[in-house]
Amino acid sequence: MRELTDQQRLFLIESEQILAAWRAAHRQKQSHQYGMKWVRAGGRDYLVRLRDARGNGKSLGPRSTETERIHAAFAANKQRADERFAALSAALKQQARLNKAVRLGRLPALIGRILHALDLARAEHHFTVIGTHALYTYEAMAAVQCSMDLLASGDVDLFYDPRKPLALTAEKLDGIGLLGLLRKVDPSFEIVATHPFRAVNQERFMVDLVIPPEGMRIDRSVRFAEDDLVAAEVPSLQWLLNSPRVEATVIATDGRPVLMRSPDPRAFAVHKAWLSGQPSREPVKKSRDLNQARLVLRLLLEHLPQYPVDERCLRYFPKDLVRGALQRLFGA
User: For a designed S-S bond to 22, which of 57, 88, 108, 155 qualifies (C-beta 3.0 to 4.6 A apart)?
Assistant: First the structure.
């Protein structure tokens, strides 16, 4: 584990600031996405605020001094929003070059592009990165760089909260589903026929869509479009579902800053420690689980004291599970 240099810390702070400003500018630009126009009907002009690309919209009234003022103000605001977004997009690209120059980037570039695409769709809060790649969130929070031995992985797990309305998520994904979004990033993504929760690209990188068990009373497929990935129910994820989330600006290997959302690091550590002791867990994964859990524990103790490791902060887990996991974490 290595702490960031002063130069890297400075660039990380600047990346956080520019990304926050860029995201706000993107939201402002989106609010003007479809525009306004005058529509002739019944011999009169009406001002219509468009709400989709098909031309559907809402009438704001016939042409008058007031609707002329609304139209002019909208056009001026749209121009300002477009100019601000363009300027911040250029600043983000420049910051990416600086981040790459000082070797600040850590997250695989493909995952960075996927997270960026979710952000563009305003669906970034609908999915949580769990599993090995969540470690990039925690090292960014701690301003350190960990050994890549424990961070390397050929797949990323996107955890979806099935309590969210599926229709809302589907709308944010513009009707193309998660697979459609992945194909915007890399057209070679295809669903694995034998594992419909998984998409794989030509480089054999996998994206898994997972949810906690929904119970026998709920009989449905969690997906966001026809021919989309179908989420797999994974036992024990209900504890991560109930845990708090943390967010951090993570730098991808191409220098791009992206917002990454993961479970509370204490929940990650306890869950991984518990997994490492399960008889059904593949032996090859058990030691890696425990080593990752202990890595996060070290980050917490040495760099993130605002996250105390005690049972009170882990009340969304069963008490016996927490005690057993903590014994494994603090054991020799």
Answer: 88
Averaged over successive runs of 10 residues, the pLDDT of the chain (332 residues) comes to: 95 97 93 88 90 82 92 92 95 97 96 95 92 96 93 92 90 92 97 96 96 79 93 91 94 97 96 93 90 95 94 90 91 62
Q: How far apart are CA 210 and CA 158, in angstroms?
A: 6
Domain ranges of the chain: 2-101, 106-263, 264-332
Alpha-carbon distance values, 113 to 181, 253, 300 (Å): 10, 11, 28
Q: In angstroms, how far apart are the furthest CA atoms of the chain?
A: 84
The span from the CA of 199 to the CA of 190, in Å, is: 5
User: Do 158 and 87 touch, CB atoms closer than 8 A?
Assistant: no
* Cα–Cα distance for residue pair 211/235, rounded to 1 Å: 9
Concatenated DSSP letters of 216-279: TT------SSTT---PEE-TTHHHHHHS-EEEEEEEBTTS-EEEEEEE-HHHHHHHHHHHTT-T
Phi first, then psi: give them for residue 72, nearest 5 degrees.
-65, -40
